[in-house]
Amino acid sequence: MTPDGPRAPHEAYGLREWHDAARAALDGAHYDYVAGGAGEERVLAANERSFDRYALLPRVLRAAGPRDTAVELPGAARAAPVLVAPTAFHRLLHPDGERATARAAAAEGAVLVTGTAATTAVGDVVAAAREAAPDPAVWFQLYLHPRPEVTEALVRRAEKAGCRALVVTADSPVFGRRARDVRNGFTDLPPGYAAENMRDLPGAPPGGLTDIPLSTAVGWRDLATVLRTTSLPVLVKGVLHPDDARLAVEHGAAGVVVSNHGGRQCDAVPAAVDCLPAVVDAVAVRVPVLLAGEVRRGSDVAVALALGAAAVGVGRPVLWGLAAAGEAGVRRVLAELLDGYDHTLALCGGRRNADLERGMVVRTAGDAR
Ligand SMILES: Cc1cc2nc3c(=O)[nH]c(=O)nc-3n(C[C@H](O)[C@H](O)[C@H](O)COP(=O)(O)O)c2cc1C
Ligand SMILES: CCCCC(=O)C(=O)O
């Protein structure tokens, strides 16, 4: 079953059905690459259960009236509260790849975070977004390369393309060990696919999966170098420890993204949403804190925002929409999440995102609902 065509919100497919449709459409190894996690997938499982342990305590009779859910983010005024988190290799999922994702995100007013591991060059991604909206916000995710001139070349590429912010991913000094990929022999991209942004960099071969620059040698000093060489706002992604959130802000970061990389890196960390409140307490008065991790329904967006997130990123659901129905699928996935969030805000008596407060979130045993 491929969900397609316009549909009234009450008829909307749940995201689970997009996942099923994508699984049916995809090569098994590519499905596993997206769905899987590191190690024994303990963190993947913890992420999947995490929002079941939070419940909302709505406020009533607040006479809230019409809602406005737009958010102000670095380089993105009045953006949707749901972003497209950076995910690799969209052309593995659909021939239109990142172009389809870009058009869909722009049409829904959602920031698209494209990045180092895109199978479409960043200039083409931004051009596609501009086909769908006059002034789309595209951010560029990068891994810090041990050779600063390579990082700088990537930054220049993103700036030239018209990206509005950079997102430095900090949780990947080495690549996570993913059993499914080992079992499937998925160690590099199929012929004809490449990490297009890695082409023609100083001293680098055209990039496949194995040519993405991960390094244990990079540190805060390299982040500071990036900040010195660009006027774009720079967010740091993959922060779980509140002290790292503070360090990021002290070094000049314009925001932090709480994420455990979808359970694909260290298989012994907490669920991402469980790390959110401490990071919010550490830095949210100074910079926006975003959450990316297993947001699957509008009420998850509401819980994250009530816990202090400025916005949330979604990874896999966008890829399931892309695999099942290309640009239209991504649009529908984003629209369903945004509509579900708007509806939940109404049910909680809210008019603006800030009407959701931490006191409206309670922890539950997780099996009670
Ligand atoms: C297939 C796949 C590829 C990813 N690639 C990247 C990447 O290149 N850079 C990055 O910072 N995060 C990457 N991530 C992590 C996502 O940005 C996000 O943090 C994570 O998937 C959690 O969101 P989700 O639960 O909605 O998938 C990737 C995740 C997946 C599933
Ligand atoms: C270095 C490749 C980036 C892809 C990625 O981040 C992931 O598969 O989780």
TrEMBL record:
Protein name: Alpha-hydroxy acid oxidase
The keyword Oxidoreductase is annotated on this UniProt entry: yes
Cofactor names: FMN
UniProt cross-references to PROSITE patterns, sorted A to Z: FMN_HYDROXY_ACID_DH_1, FMN_HYDROXY_ACID_DH_2
Highest rank taxon of the organism: Bacteria
Cross-referenced Pfam families: FMN_dh (PF01070)
Family label: Belongs to the FMN-dependent alpha-hydroxy acid dehydrogenase family.
Species this chain originates from: Streptomyces synnematoformans
Location of the FMN hydroxy acid dehydrogenase domain: 7-366
Keywords: Flavoprotein, FMN, Oxidoreductase
Gene3D superfamilies listed in its UniProt record: Aldolase class I (3.20.20.70)
